[in-house]
Design brief:
Elements lengths: L16 H9 L5 H5 L5 E4 L3 E2 L9 E8 L4 E6 L2 E10 L2 E8 L4 H4 L5 E9 L5 E4 L2 E4 L9 E4 L8 H15 L9 H6 L5 H9 L4 H32 L11 H4 L8 H15 L5 E6 L5 H14 L3 E6 L2 H15 L6 E4 L5 H12 L5 E5 L12 E7 L6 H10 L6 E6 L5 H7 L4 E5 L10 E5 L4 H13 L3 E5 L25 H12 L5 E4 L5 H12 L5 E4 L12 E6 L7 H8 L10 E5 L5 H12 L3 H12 L2 H4 L18 H17 L9 H10 L9
Parallel strand pairs: 2-3, 6-8, 11-16, 11-17, 12-14, 12-15, 13-14, 15-16, 18-23, 19-21, 19-22, 20-21, 22-23
Antiparallel strand pairs: 1-10, 3-5, 3-7, 4-5, 5-6, 7-8, 7-9
The structure holds adenosine-5'-triphosphate.
Adenosine-5'-triphosphate (ATP) binds next to helix 10.
Protein name: ATP-dependent DNA helicase RecG
Catalytic activity: Couples ATP hydrolysis with the unwinding of duplex DNA by translocating in the 3'-5' direction; ATP + H2O = ADP + phosphate + H(+)
InterPro entries: ATP-dep_DNA_helicase_RecG, DEAD/DEAH_box_helicase_dom, Helicase_ATP-bd, Helicase_C-like, NA-bd_OB-fold, P-loop_NTPase, RecG/Mfd, RecG_dom3_C
């Protein structure tokens, strides 16, 4: 049957219902999906040797004839061997297959095959184990550069390569060429069909390079064009124009002098707010760098110009904390600060809402529910949020409705410091301010990586800190002892050892620290219980707080001087850095102990980075190198299209080139309305699905 790009995978040979369902799991429903499913790596299977000449220890292809019927033997339950002797003009070789019984019938004596594998032993005792093989006269998977795909259970690389080979042969040339001819020419990019052919089955290394370059460029080019549209649309919108106020009265409210970096970020935001266009700015700073004060300054400016401000925190705990901090700083100037959280009594909420609508609250702090229906602002001019809750375009119009038609200024606070170049892309439609300086007088947190053998000493250390009047966090990765794993999913090794918060807190209180005050908090507690525990800790009524990562972002208890992270290997570096940032926020020397029983060299090397630096930007760069940017932001990447082949952190040169190309093209055809640019415009619309009105 003739295949087209739209053909379903069921039309491919060997694909029944079961396999189709598995392919579906990889997002592969059609021929086009398969062509867009890129290999994660390649294996060079081009080198052919005779049995005698094959080098030892390198994977190579050897053409040989099966000399005798394969012999199958059962060694024990679960272990079965199939052995076969093969020969060529120069020698012979014994091949062993483990648990591949089908081989006995697949290899026919007297027939020649190509075996791809590692040759061991010297002539005349040459051996090979578990090679890939296929008939010599019909080679498909040997004698070429083979793609290696990301797989799922029940889908082998051979199966998938068989499918992509067929699709590439039949349909690669049909892939639509969307890149404008001029762009391809100016940037020396390979044609579309050629690239899809060679990304799967490259005829040479050079061909693979050309294909990769084009496909990566293409992806980054669409991204750049889309971002440019988002930006230009914002530049056309109007926002509340704040007056250009002196900030001196604000500075006078503070018990400390702001750092240069804080002042710079405030100036940048103030400039945006006075511009008449809606601000959309990201403030990123390392843990403890004092981002909250930038938020406070903006609220002050809004108030001075007669606008209301709203600050949304990711959790109730943080909302309460911000409420305390911000009213502490701003109330003395006359600003009326209100708090609205889900766990407040209905009557209290009603009062706050009424005051807000009457314009009697200048700054409302709460969780993101404060922007829900039923909460009406008299004159909303500024919204401060965190990166997880930043707004999509749709929500922006809801915001504008609350702002009386004008799009309020938006300030986004990020707790994850990432390299600026990357931030500009990932948060593409935001301007970025970086706070790259810590308030003076902070001593870096001393960090240790220890094994289980140091547990007793670590507990002694906890006692010493508490004896000195300090407080201690102990962070564990999971809530319940051993959760039943979801169907068919293997629990990760050592799962049962994961320190579970509730049980662990109880053990600590009863067995280890009967004389200390131990509390716990985790995400499954009721908000009221969570707050009670946090408030007890913040108020000094607890010595030790056992917790999950609910304390990760933003919690500020300056008296805490030690944080212990159990099963530290389960956390990403940036996350550990965030956790560590919960201590070292006051004047006391602080410590972070990462404990793990994992002896894997790589894991330990990764964790070691934390003992060597306290620079969040450096740590996030390491994290990026190790885990790629996808992990950072979850799968969503804030509504930006998912990258299939480009690596935002690694392909920076091509990214720059693609950005320049996008700028040049948009300078000529700013709305992409020329007929030859229609496919491009369509493509951008498809990729930026979450920004439905990208071209409005
Ligand atoms: N310029 C400054 N001088 C001295 N202390 C400061 C300064 N700016 C902020 N602080 C204090 O430093 C602590 C951390 O500030 P803040 O909570 O704003 O940090 P943050 O950047 O939000 O960090 P995190 O992301 O870790 O929550 C607070 O106790 C705050 O009062």
């Amino acid at each position: 049957m003739e295949l087209t790009l739209g053909s379903g995978v069921r039309e491919l040979p060997g694909i029944g219902e079961a396999r189709a369902a598995r392919l579906e799991k990889l997002g592969l429903a059609t021929v086009e999906d398969l062509l867009r499913y890129f290999p994660r790596d390649y294996e060079d299977r081009r080198k052919h040797y005779t049995i005698a000449a094959a080098p030892v220890g390198l994977p190579v292809c050897v053409a040989a004839m099966v000399a005798e019927p394969p012999r199958r033997s059962y060694v024990r339950k679960g272990l079965e061997l199939t052995k076969v002797r093969v020969v060529d003009a120069h020698g012979s070789m014994e091949i062993t297959f483990f648990n591949q019984g089908y081989v006995k019938n697949a290899l026919v004596p007297g027939e020649s095959y190509i075996f791809y594998g590692m040759v061991e032993g010297l002539p005349p005792r040459r051996r090979m184990t578990n090679p890939v093989f296929e008939p010599e006269d019909r080679p498909r998977f040997t004698g070429r550069i083979m793609p290696i795909y990301p797989l799922t259970a029940g889908i082998s690389n051979n199966l998938l390569s068989g499918l992509t080979l067929r699709c590439a042969q039949d349909c690669a040339q049909e892939m639509p060429e969307i890149l404008p001819f001029r762009v391809r020419q100016e940037h020396a990019l390979a044609a579309c069909g050629y690239s899809y052919q060679n990304i799967h089955f490259p005829v040479s290394e050079e061909a693979l390079d050309l294909a990769r370059r084009r496909l990566i460029f293409e992806e980054l080019f669409y991204l750049s064009c889309g971002l440019a549209f988002l930006r230009s649309r914002r530049e056309g919108a109007s926002g509340p124009a704040f007056q250009r106020e002196s900030l001196e009265p604000f500075f006078a409210l503070l018990p400390f002098a702001l750092t240069q970096a804080q002042q710079r970020a405030i100036r940048e935001a103030a400039e945006d707010c006075a511009s008449g266009r809606p601000m959309n700015r990201l403030v990123q700073g390392d843990v403890g760098s004092g981002k909250t004060m930038v938020a406070a300054a903006c609220c002050f400016l809004a108030w001075k110009s007669g606008w209301q401000a709203a600050l949304m925190a990711p959790t109730e705990i943080l909302a309460e904390q911000h409420f305390r901090t911000l009213s502490g700083v701003l109330a003395p100037a006359g600003l009326r600060v209100g708090l609205l959280t889900g766990s407040m009594r209905a009557s209290e909420k009603k009062k706050v809402r009424a005051a807000l609508a009457a314009g009697e609250i200048d700054l409302l702090v709460g969780t993101h529910a404060i922007l829900s229906a039923g909460v009406d602002f008299a004159r909303l001019g500024l919204v401060i949020t965190d990166e997880q809750h930043r707004f999509g375009v749709g929500q922006r119009s809801a915001l504008a409705a609350k702002g009386g038609g004008l799009s309020p200024h938006v300030l986004v606070m990020s707790a994850t410091p990432i390299p600026r170049t990357l931030a500009l892309i990932i948060y593409g439609d935001l301007d970025v301010s970086v706070i790259d300086e810590l308030p003076p007088g902070r001593t870096p947190v001393e960090t240790f990586l220890v094994g289980e053998d140091k547990r007793a000493r670590m507990y002694q250390f906890v006692r010493r800190q508490v004896a000195e009047g300090r407080q201690v966090y102990i962070v564990c990765p999971a809530v319940e002892e051993a959760q039943p794993s979801p169907e068919g999913v293997e629990p990760p090794p050592g799962f049962a050892d994961l320190k579970a918060v509730t049980a662990y807190a109880k053990d600590l209180q009863e067995g280890v620290f009967p004389d200390l005050r131990v509390g716990f908090v985790h995400g499954r507690l009721k908000p009221r219980e969570k707050e009670a525990a946090m408030a007890a800790f913040a108020g000094g009524a607890l010595d030790v707080l056992v917790s999950t990562t609910v304390i990760e972002v933003g919690v500020d208890v300056p008296n805490a001087s030690l944080i212990i992270v159990e099963n530290a290997d389960r956390f990403g570096l940036s996350q550990l850095h965030q956790l560590r940032g919960r201590v070292g926020r006051g004047k006391h020397q602080s410590y972070c102990v990462l404990i793990t029983s994992n002896r894997n060299q790589e894991t330990r090397a990764r964790l070691k980075v934390l003992t060597q630096t306290t620079d969040g930007f450096r740590i996030s760069e390491e994290d990026l190198k190790l885990r790629g940017p996808g992990d950072f932001f979850g799968k969503r990447q804030h509504g930006l299209p998912q990258m299939r082949i480009a690596d935002l952190a690694g392909d920076t040169r091509l990214l720059k080139e693609a950005q320049e190309a996008a700028q040049a093209l948009l300078a000529e055809d700013p709305t992409l309305d020329r007929p030859e640019h229609q496919p491009l415009k369509e493509q951008i619309r498809r990729l930026f699905t979450e920004h439905a009105d990208i071209f409005n």
